[in-house]
Amino acid sequence: MKRKKLGLPASGERGSWLVILTVLSLLAAGTGGAFGLYLVSKVEKAVDEKKKGEEGKKAPTLAYSGELTSKAILPVVTNLANGDDTWIRLESSIIFTNGALQNPDVAVAEIRQDILAYLRTLSVSQIQGASGLQHLREDLNERVALRTKGLVRELIVETLVVQ
Questions:
Q1: Cα separation of 162 and 126, whole Å?
Q2: What is the C-alpha separation between 107 and 103, in angstroms, rounded?
Q3: 27-67 confidence digits (pLDDT tens)
Q4: What integer best gives the mean pLDDT of the chain?
Q5: Which of 5, 54, 71, 91 gives 159 a disulfide partner, CB atoms 3.0 to 4.6 angstroms apart?
Q6: Measured between alpha carbons, how far apart are the two ends of the chain, in Å?
Q7: Is 153 helix (H, G, I), strand (E, B) or coil?
């Protein structure tokens, strides 16, 4: 019986393995590079299309533009109707046409006084949740419109804290 030699393959076999391994490595590198270039071109096309779409759109118009101005109302702090231990703090501003109010400072003081009187009639349950906040905004806007005879466009609630 003949025994097979264990050890390194013959030099011819080793050379063919190196050639095959080199060819496969070059093929993998070429395929990866080509796929990378393909992806880069797709991304560049998508970015170019997005830029063209954005250039065609107009800039969004602001809700308040033109001759409108705003005036901050000093914070209102008072207790609510349902007890001495529940307090509310409201910071707000008014939006109006420039020059529409004869004396904006006097109008702001009167509006602040109205807000204070109105907030003292509220309970916590009336201003809870999103619907409560929406009703509060609507009620305050109605009071401001009545006080200024419609010259104030809107009262914006900036901060509302109930404690």
A1: 12
A2: 6
A3: 999 999 999 999 999 999 999 998 888 877 766 666 677 78
A4: 87
A5: 91
A6: 99
A7: strand
Q: How far apart are CA 107 and CA 17, in angstroms?
A: 92
Nearest by Cα to 90 from 8, 161, 34, 13: 161
33: which 2 tokens?
């590079």
Give CA 122 to chain center in angstroms: 31
d(CA 95, CA 155): 6
Evaluate whether 141 touches 65 at the Cβ level (below 8 Å): no
Q: What is the pLDDT of residue 16?
A: 86
Helices 104-119 and 129-148 sit at what angle, rounded to 10 degrees? 140
CB half-sphere exposure, 73, CA atoms < 13 A: 31
CATH class of the region 68-162: alpha beta
pLDDT over 80 at 150, yes or no = yes
**CA proximity to 71, closest of 152, 159, 161:** 152
| pTM of this structure | 0.60
Instruction: Report the alpha-carbon distance of residue 99 to residue 69 in Å, rounded.
Output: 9
Q: What are phi and psi of 71, to 5 degrees?
A: -140, 125
